[in-house]
C-alpha cells in the first residue's frame, strides 16, 4: 500500500489544551534501530473483537530497507515515503491502529510526527498476526508529503515542519507531552494510559493558528498527550 495518507477539512477549529495539541512533522534522518513510539486505540491481541477503550503506546525499533523489503514488496527505498519497524515479538500495531501516529520523542517532554500507521506484513509471507516475531509494520512517512500538503492546502512548509539541530540550523519546538503518565504497552500485557480519546480538560482554550482557523489539518496531526 502506497500514498496511505489523507487530509481532513474541519468545519470548526479544534479545541486545544495541555492534553490535545498539534504536532509538527519530523523530516530528520532515521537510522536502523531508532526507537520510535506508536499510539492508538487498536486491538490488543489478534483475536480481540474490539479495540482498546483507552489510548495505548508501544516503543518500536526501525528496520533497514533490506530487511523491510523481505516482507514488504512495495517498498521503494529511494523514494523515502515509508518507514518500517518490527520483528519485535509482543510489540506491534494492530487492527484499529491504522491512521495513528508514529512519533520521535525528544528528551522528556516533546515529540514530532514521523509516520502514520499503515499496514502490517509478515516476513515469511504468512498472514500477519499482531505482535508475532516475524511481523513488519509499515508507516507512511508524513514529511515526504509536505509538497502535496502545501499544494492542496496552501499551508507553508515552515508551519508544518519540525526543525532542530539534527536536520536544520533553524529551531522550532515540537509538541509538548507529559511522559510521566505515558506507559509502554505490549500485546497481552498492555499498560493503560489514563484518559479518553479526544477529551481535553475543563480549562481547554480554543487555539486558532492560521492553518487550523481555515479549517484544514493533516490526518493524525493531532497528538494526544496525557496529563499527570
UniProtKB/TrEMBL annotation:
- Gene3D superfamilies per the UniProt record, alphabetical: Trypsin-like serine proteases
Peptidase S1 domain: residues covered: 1-154
Gene Ontology BP term (one): proteolysis
Annotated Low complexity bias: 164-186
Which InterPro entries did the record assign?
Peptidase_S1_PA (IPR009003), Peptidase_S1_PA_chymotrypsin (IPR043504), Ser/Thr_Proteases_Immune/Dev (IPR051487), Trypsin_dom (IPR001254), TRYPSIN_SER (IPR033116)
The keyword Disulfide bond belongs to this UniProt entry's keyword annotation: yes
Keyword annotations for this protein, in alphabetical order, are:
Disulfide bond
Renumbered residue ranges of the record's region Disordered: 164-206
User: What Pfam families does the entry give?
Assistant: Trypsin
Annotated membrane-spanning segments are: none
Ligase is among the record's keywords: no
What GO molecular-function term can you cite, just one?
A: serine-type endopeptidase activity
Instruction: Quote the protein name from its UniProt record.
Output: Testisin
Q: Which organism is it from?
A: Tieghemiomyces parasiticus
> What is the taxonomic lineage of the source species?
Eukaryota, Fungi, Fungi incertae sedis, Zoopagomycota, Kickxellomycotina
Q: Which gene encodes it?
A: PRSS21_2
Amino acid at each position: 500500500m502506497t500514498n496511505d495518507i489523507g487530509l481532513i477539512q474541519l468545519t470548526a477549529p479544534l479545541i486545544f489544551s495541555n492534553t490535545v495539541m498539534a504536532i509538527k512533522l519530523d523530516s530528520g534522518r532515521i537510522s536502523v534501530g531508532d526507537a520510535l513510539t506508536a499510539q492508538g486505540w487498536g486491538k490488543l491481541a489478534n483475536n480481540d473483537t474490539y479495540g482498546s477503550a483507552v489510548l495505548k503506546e508501544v516503543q518500536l525499533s526501525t528496520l533497514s530497507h533490506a530487511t523491510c523489503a523481505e516482507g514488504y514488496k512495495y517498498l521503494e527505498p529511494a523514494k523515502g515515503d515509508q518507514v518500517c519497524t518490527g520483528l519485535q515479538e509482543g510489540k506491534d500495531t494492530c487492527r484499529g491502529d491504522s491512521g495513528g501516529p508514529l512519533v520521535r520523542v525528544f528528551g522528556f517532554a516533546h515529540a514530532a510526527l514521523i509516520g502514520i500507521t499503515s499496514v502490517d506484513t509478515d516476513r515469511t509471507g504468512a498472514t500477519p498476526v499482531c505482535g508475532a516475531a516475524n511481523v513488519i509494520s509499515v508507516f507512511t512517512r508524513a514529511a515526504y508529503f509536505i509538497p502535496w500538503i502545501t499544494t492542496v492546502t496552501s499551508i507553508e512548509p515552515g508551519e508544518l515542519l519540525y526543525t532542530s539541530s539534527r536536520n536544520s540550523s533553524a529551531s522550532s519546538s515540537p509538541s509538548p507531552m507529559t511522559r510521566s503518565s505515558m506507559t509502554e504497552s505490549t500485546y497481552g500485557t498492555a499498560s493503560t494510559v489514563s484518559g479518553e480519546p479526544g477529551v481535553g480538560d475543563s480549562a481547554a482554550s480554543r487555539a486558532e493558528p492560521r492553518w487550523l482557523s481555515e479549517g484544514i489539518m493533516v490526518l493524525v496531526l493531532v497528538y494526544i498527550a496525557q496529563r499527570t
